[in-house]
């Protein structure tokens, strides 16, 4: 009898331990990876009110991952700089796309981008295949980022519309290399959106005139400029120029400061 219990108890103990182990390990079973990858937070409407902490609880690598020190072929990251990475506004070592927009010193000083400023997911009822096609593993509906978001900061400088004789690199000397020469009075009601730090931008631009150009032509990835909303400003003329007739007069609703959406 006693022998039986002695033999049984290690078995019982290991069974209890296995059960406990299963409870703790349940976060990392295949089924749960699947469940996480289909988490409703990736799509509308939940993504609109997601805060960064929620996304980062599963995607920490987005802000921690670093670029390779050296490519597999042996080329060092420090030896392959793009032209803009040689400018004074580009600080530090090469870094990942996400870190350059979320955690580098310049990003933190001037911007307040959230995951959902860029990631908007999709409305699955509109864009997912019906019936669902499970052989599709690429999860592209979660990635959806509207390139118009990028265009706001990486578009061409609208020098013609501003009445400048030539593109900024050629005409900047005429204007003391300072956008504020005009913009101290023109379109002064600007950057009141939940992903920019409006006051910090003005402060930084007073010290370094290239700050403005940095988001309005200096880091241009597109051939076209962004058609910005045209907020009324103090001293604005009552006649609207032809090019501005169709412009909205307020920022996109989801970017407005008073809106929860995309805010922390
Ligand atoms: C519960 C955990 C969890 C949360 C919370 C979460 N995700 Fe995910 N996400 C996943 C998993 C798992 C995948 C699938 C990853 C894969 O297969 O590489 C995924 C996929 C993605 C992808 C596609 C990745 C690729 O390589 O194609 C994007 C983009 C993404 N998530 C963004 C977000 C954003 C933005 C948020 C916050 C609004 C968020 N996720 C919240 C777990 C999560
Ligand atoms: C400046 C816009 C922007 C911001 C802010 C942003 N992302 Fe992304 N993200 C992108 C773009 C663009 C891609 C590439 C999409 C593609 O490959 O189709 C991407 C890709 C991803 C991917 C899949 C590829 C990878 O690198 O693993 C994940 C996961 C992801 N983002 C999560 C996040 C999370 C979490 C946050 C907030 C902490 C965030 N993103 C903030 C624009 C952004
Ligand atoms: C609110 C303004 C803003 C938005 C929106 C924005 N960017 Fe940027 N982007 C910047 C700034 C500022 C830098 C420079 C950051 C630095 O040097 O630390 C930058 C840097 C970059 C770089 C250079 C990264 C490197 O390390 O060389 C790329 C590429 C880029 N952005 C692409 C994009 C794409 C694609 C999107 C849209 C998904 C986007 N950006 C949205 C402001 C923005
Ligand atoms: C000679 C004066 C002048 C200088 C210098 C100048 N701007 Fe402008 N800017 C204007 C005028 C005028 C407008 C149009 C005002 C209106 O909406 O009627 C304008 C409009 C803009 C717009 C809005 C464009 C749109 O499509 O709504 C941006 C952005 C802008 N300027 C950025 C800059 C930046 C950045 C610099 C420096 C690199 C700069 N400006 C230098 C006069 C100037
Ligand atoms: C970090 C990127 C960034 C920097 C730096 C920046 N801008 Fe902008 N600017 C933007 C974005 C994004 C918008 C559109 C915001 C919105 O949707 O209302 C904008 C809008 C504008 C507009 C349109 C204003 C309106 O009527 O709504 C003007 C003019 C402008 N910027 C001029 C400037 C000047 C001058 C500076 C330097 C003092 C500057 N920008 C610095 C990103 C930037």
UniProtKB/TrEMBL annotation:
InterPro entries: Multihaem_cyt_sf. Keywords: Signal. Residues 1-25 form the signal peptide. The keyword rRNA-binding does not apply. Residues 243-257 have a biased composition (Basic and acidic residues). Residues 236-264 are annotated as: Disordered. This is Doubled CXXCH motif domain-containing protein. It comes from Candidatus Thiodiazotropha endolucinida.
């Amino acid at each position: 009898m006693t022998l039986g219990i002695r033999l049984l108890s290690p078995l019982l103990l290991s069974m209890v331990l296995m059960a406990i182990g299963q409870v703790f390990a349940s976060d990392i079973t295949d089924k749960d990876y699947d469940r996480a990858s289909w988490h409703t937070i990736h799509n509308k409407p939940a993504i609109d009110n997601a805060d960064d902490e929620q996304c980062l609880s599963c995607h920490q690598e987005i802000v921690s991952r670093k670029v390779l020190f050296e490519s597999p072929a042996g080329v060092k990251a420090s030896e392959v700089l793009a032209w803009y990475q040689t400018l004074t506004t580009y600080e530090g070592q090469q870094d990942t796309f996400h870190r350059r927009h979320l955690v580098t010193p310049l990003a933190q000083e001037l911007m307040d981008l959230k995951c959902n400023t860029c990631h908007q997911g999709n409305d699955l009822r509109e864009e997912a295949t019906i019936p669902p096609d499970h052989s599709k593993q690429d999860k592209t509906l979660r990635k959806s980022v509207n390139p118009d978001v990028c265009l706001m900061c990486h578009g061409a400088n609208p020098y013609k519309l501003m009445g400048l004789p030539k593109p900024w690199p050629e005409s900047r000397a005429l204007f003391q290399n300072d956008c504020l020469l005009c913009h101290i009075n023109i379109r002064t009601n600007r950057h009141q959106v939940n992903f920019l730090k409006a006051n910090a931008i003005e402060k930084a631009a007073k010290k370094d005139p290239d700050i403005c150009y940095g988001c309005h032509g200096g880091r241009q990835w597109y051939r076209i400029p962004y058609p910005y909303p045209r907020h009324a400003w103090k001293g604005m003329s009552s006649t609207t120029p032809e090019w501005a007739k169709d412009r909205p007069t307020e920022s996109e609703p989801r970017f407005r400061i008073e809106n929860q959406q995309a805010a922390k």
